[in-house]
Structures
1.
Amino acid sequence: NKKEDTMKIFSENEVDSAAEVLTHDGVIAVATDTVFGVCCRMQSEAAQERLRYIKHRPLDKAFPIMAADINQVEEFALIEETGRKIMTSLLPGPGTVILKKKEDLPAYINGGLPTVAVRLATSDQLKKLIEKTGPLFMTSANQSGQPVCQSIAEIEQACPDLDGILKGRPSFGKASTIIDCTSPNIRILRQGPISEEQIQRVLGK
């Protein structure tokens, strides 16, 4: 009978307690600027396995990574000129950039792919959290292939095995723009709140 370990709900200022759960390889839900996300520490393969289990996500789908700042991203990805322009001008914001991974990146982190998908912390709350835990795997709060959860009640229902939920409020309510920055000619892989015009303006085109 597992009733007693019900999911912990952390208020918006209980970042330290939420970070503690992540440090012990737990998986929690958080609000990003776009949608609710579920996350765990990037440096732990055990945490990633738990996240896969909670999301029922297939092994061949790598998780996006959310970092506190560009310095953290440089620890695991190569940022070329185009990517740097996009990141310094449009992030943190509702965008995900695809970058080439660093050679020595452990295969479990991105399923052995040559690239990683990266976001920068979209709120002070998330930045504080990631400064305590290191970069996080961050994926939308839902079961793989299902609609994204819009509220804490929906998250509890869709992901009952979570170790906690850190309260917050997403603002855009739709998934981020995905921008492939692995070559000088960027490609938009998913339309989202950041428009193609904004991107071209940053690149001076």
Note: The CA atoms of residues 92 and 136 lie 15 Å apart.
2.
Amino acid sequence: MGTEIERKFLLKDDSWRSQVLTRTLYRQAYIHFREQENGVLRVRVAGEKGYLTLKGPVHGCTRSEYEYEIPFDDANALINGFCEGPAVDKYRHIVMNGSDRWEIDEFLGDNRGLLLAELELVSEDSVFEHPVWLGEEVTGKPEYYNSFLARNPYQTWKQTQTKG
């Protein structure tokens, strides 16, 4: 079984930008099915590659995950023809901090302004160095899942906070 153990954080500043090794444009959308119970089926285009990923429900910071590369044109066709709601567009930046490989997502479009750092771990209790640019941990908060952002974009959060 494929397993993903991931911690997710907000960022407190832009000092990570000087450490970026690569940057790739991602576009992803979701085919939903009783998400809270079973997880989601994600279709993703990363650069010039396509992927189909089945993600199970989250338990702590662990979930089952199965990812398969599919033809680029098929991925785009699935995003445009089968997925519900708008796609989530973002740049994924790869940053090394010591031996840790951080993925920093800089969201675009209706999620513009949101920056998230993710670190995949070997176990839930893995110890890692907290970079100076790391902010509040949001692991396990559903509002920071990409599948949630597809239906409830970050820009609408800001509008709700302004009105409230």
Note: The chain is about 20% helix and 45% strand.
3.
Amino acid sequence: MASSRSPLPPTEIADRLRARFGDDVVSFEDRFGHAVVTVTTERYREIVRFLRDERDLAFDYFDFLGGVDRRDAGIEVVTHLASTVHNHSVRVKVVADAQEPRVPTISDLYPGANWHEREAWELFGVDFEGHPHLVKLLLPEPFEGHPLRKDFELMTRVAKPWPGEAEGEEAEEE
């Protein structure tokens, strides 16, 4: 089925978001013909719902959600949405606190976000508030830490005693 409407230019998407949400749209970029907006954590969920429900926007397709560790600047959660009706897309970014990253869930708005949020929780430590079932997907249950955080200590860089090294009484006899 062909789209009866043409895609909105990225600047028009940003203008509509700013008209509705004002300063909660922190920044906007046109990246190769795609709208990229950074929004406040407090309004993230509401903005995503607006993008989905607004008829002229109609972002009906959840593409992906991922994380980027910006060190002290926080954990950036990146959500990509597309409209199958209008053939346009938007990337929504929200920056969570570096020490205790929290972002509202959108898994009830887009069921496809469920596993993506679980993965971002597991690998970056982002707590998706209101998520129905944050449990590990990739790592074993006893695994500690968040391996995609820049402060995660890689096991290959941890000094470990050599397995054949003498210990205890054996070491004293030498």
Note: The mean pLDDT is 91.
4.
Amino acid sequence: MKSNRHTPPKLSVIVHDVRSILNVGAIFRTADAAGVGMIWLTGYTPGPDTHPDKLAKTALGAQSCVSWGRVRRVGDLLRKLKRNGMTIIALEQTKKSIDYRAFNPPPAGGPMALIVGNEVKGIGIKAMSHNLIDAWIEIPMRGEKESLNVAVALGIALYELTRRWN
């Protein structure tokens, strides 16, 4: 686990099995803009340690502003965060997902983590099978396409969650 942060952040993002380093770079930039304290890269998600030059194209320096860590197995990370009292929210289209605007964040700015997954498969069966996710949220789609780009969806959800959480 790599991290340059010594205290647990109140707002974290978990990026699980995202393939594109350009998406990861955009996530770093969006996370910085939204005030995220920690980004966790899990599974095979690339990052500043694997593709620094490619990441820099979309992160535009945000990789130096936001603390980040790497944990291979998402279940290990979810268990650790839950032990530390973190509310874990999954941004995923499932039968149990609710409209992201209807989700009530933890009270008084309590610690929370938002997890996003692979560009095609989403968070994935293994990560979803953990009973450690407190809420499932989704962004309603009005057009013909079934989903948004992972970095765009994260930005939309982060801004709504932080608006209501602060």
Note: Confidence is low (pLDDT under 50) at residues 1-8.
